[in-house]
């Protein structure tokens, strides 16, 4: 009988004492269905806002990502594969973080050109400089940039928690399948309420 991932021991690692929040591509281009790349996901925005407020209240680091193309040479093959990405130009409304989640001064917005928040960016260096060793990963989309960022976070030796209600995808089946894979191999996929409980316990405050 073939072995499946369900047959393997999987440890729940959770968060360390130095976590950060990584909001992946919570930008207008993905949260507004008027954009070809976007979807109507107010519940995902609301879950991100809940986490964002808690991280800020606890004084923990917050990082955003966006996708920006500043010239025709950047990510040429990716853009050939998905031509809709070409709307994500530097002067476009679509590359700005959703106004409901407006970054505060001092909260970095990492510009990327590919799926992962880590690939060809300085995110790892910025996290390391702050002593961060675990990440709560949220955002859009589960099967694309969220998955790629979570996998790369693991590959950079961060313990990863994916906040279940704070990620979304245009394809519900892809969403569910990728959450299964992430939880099986790369991260802890847990509800937002459980993330908040872990955070308050780590910081020694009442939930």
From TrEMBL:
Coiled coil: none
SUPFAM superfamilies (alphabetical): Isochorismatase-like hydrolases
Xref: InterPro entries: Isochorismatase-like_dom (IPR000868), Isochorismatase-like_hydrls (IPR050272), Isochorismatase-like_sf (IPR036380)
Domain of life: Bacteria
Signal peptide positions (record): none
GO molecular function: hydrolase activity
Every Isochorismatase-like domain range: 20-193
Keywords tagged on the record: Hydrolase
PANTHER family: ISOCHORISMATASE HYDROLASE, PEROXYUREIDOACRYLATE/UREIDOACRYLATE AMIDOHYDROLASE-RELATED
Protein name in the entry: Hydrolase, isochorismatase family protein
């Amino acid at each position: 009988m073939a072995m499946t991932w369900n047959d393997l021991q999987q440890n729940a690692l959770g968060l360390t004492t130095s976590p950060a929040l990584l909001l992946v591509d919570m930008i207008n281009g993905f949260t507004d269905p008027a954009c070809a790349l976007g979807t109507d996901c107010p519940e995902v925005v609301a879950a991100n806002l809940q986490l964002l407020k808690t991280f800020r209240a606890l004084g923990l680091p917050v990082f955003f990502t966006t996708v920006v193309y500043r010239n025709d040479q950047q990510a040429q093959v990716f853009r050939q594969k998905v031509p809709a990405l070409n709307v994500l130009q530097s002067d476009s409304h679509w590359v700005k973080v959703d106004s409901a989640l407006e970054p505060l001064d001092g909260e970095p917005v990492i510009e990327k050109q590919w799926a992962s928040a880590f690939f060809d960016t300085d995110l790892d260096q910025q996290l390391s400089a702050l002593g961060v060793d675990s990440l709560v990963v949220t955002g859009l989309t589960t099967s694309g940039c969220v998955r790629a960022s979570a996998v790369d976070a693991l590959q950079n030796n961060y313990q990863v928690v994916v906040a279940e209600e704070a990620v979304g995808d245009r394809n519900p089946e892809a969403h569910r399948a990728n959450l299964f894979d992430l939880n099986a191999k790369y991260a802890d996929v847990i509800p937002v309420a459980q993330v908040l409980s872990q955070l308050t316990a780590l910081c020694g405050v009442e939930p």
